[in-house]
Amino acid sequence: MRLGLAGAGRIGAMHAEILRGLDEVDALVIADAQPQRAGEVAGKLGAEHVEDVEALFGAGLDGLVVAAATDAHPELIVRSVEAGIPVLCEKPVAGDVAETVRVLRRVTGAEVPVHVGFQRRFDPGYAAARAAVRSGELGWVHTLRATTLDPAPPPATYIPTSGGLFRDCGVHDFDVIRWVSGQEVAEVYAVGTNRGEEFFRAAGDVDTLGAVLTLADDTIALVSATRYNAAGYDVRLEVMGSRQSLAVGLDERMPLRSVEAGVAWPSGPAYPTFVERFQPAYVAELRAFVASVRGETSEACTVADALEASYVAEACELSRREHRPVRISEVRRD
């Protein structure tokens, strides 16, 4: 199998290393907006590299993984589909809802797989939580609590093009809440604050958020996220039901210290970044994509799924700005 990789930055380089380790991948061809970076990553891994995207699409690919800048995603997704090349694109599909809708229209009915990179769907804990909800062992679910706490902010230059904390970070929680619960979000109420670096405020963004989501069956989901959690990378999901409750991410590396006497758990060390926390999930996600290139089915996030999560993020941002509850129907587009 001959795969292409568009983008050789931090996530792209990680994907390249994983793909080179898969037995099914015979050759990997890398392109980047900075050709030198593509050459450096390819050289370390014994992969091929080309000068630009044009050369990449002319390299006889069986599939394409997109880890380029967000503004390049729509064109790369659509071009891959029109060329009959299966594609996995890191989230987001596009920089805004309108462009995501346009991409969905272009790829609907495509004969090749189109995956969007929401790796939590491939984490064993989240998958087990989904299975527990589906089986009914929890009873009826009344509350979900989702948390994404980054250890430190990204570079200031990233924030103006990130889409904001709800769209860039919270969207992972919104997607996995939908996936685990099997329910759509009906209404949101969201808040955000800035107590850290001024560059968040300057970009119209926040560094900490909280949101209450009401699902279609009246289940309540509580979401919190921040750019400031120096104890470590903390990502968890709690699912509470009428019979039982469970938690994802409650392991020895959870960066949350108990102050109860005689309690030494968790023992750490904490996950420093999302890369270490979700490394196995990224491997599983890319394995699933490779399998889909061979014609097998998978539980990957579709463009339609990604759009639904984006609607929730958009509604939360509107709610934060206008200080009011927002129905998803207010931001949904035909």
Short description:
The protein has ten helices and 13 strands.
Give a verbal description of the structure.
The chain is α/β, with parallel strands linked by helices. It folds into 2 domains: 137 residues, NAD(P)-binding Rossmann-like Domain (Rossmann fold, 3-Layer(aba) Sandwich), CATH 3.40.50; 176 residues, Dihydrodipicolinate Reductase, domain 2. The protein has a 7-stranded mixed β-sheet. The protein has a 6-stranded parallel β-sheet with strand order 3-2-1-4-5-6, sandwiched between helices. Strand 9 and strand 10 form a beta hairpin. It starts with a strand and ends in a 7-residue tail after the last strand. It comes from Amycolatopsis arida. GO terms for molecular function: nucleotide binding; oxidoreductase activity. This is Myo-inositol 2-dehydrogenase / D-chiro-inositol 1-dehydrogenase. Belongs to the Gfo/Idh/MocA family. It holds the Pfam family GFO_IDH_MocA_C3.
| Spatial separation of the terminal alpha carbons | 38 Å
CATH fold group of the largest domain: Dihydrodipicolinate Reductase, domain 2
N to C succession of SSEs: EHEHEHEHEHEHEHEHEEEEHHE
Strand order of the largest sheet: 12-11-7-10-9-8-13
Fraction of helical residues: 25-40%
How much is the radius of gyration in Å? 20 Å
Name given to the CATH homologous superfamily of the largest domain: Dihydrodipicolinate Reductase, domain 2
Average predicted confidence as pLDDT: 96
Question: Beta fraction of the residues?
Answer: 15-25%
Helical run tally: 10
Uncertain runs = none
How many domains? The number is 2
Looking at how many chains there are and whether they match, the oligomeric state comes to single chain
Q: Which structural class matches the secondary elements?
A: alpha/beta
Protein name: Myo-inositol 2-dehydrogenase / D-chiro-inositol 1-dehydrogenase
GO molecular function, one term: nucleotide binding
Organism: Amycolatopsis arida
InterPro entries: Gfo/Idh/MocA-like_OxRdtase_N, GFO_IDH_MocA-like_dom, NAD(P)-bd_dom_sf
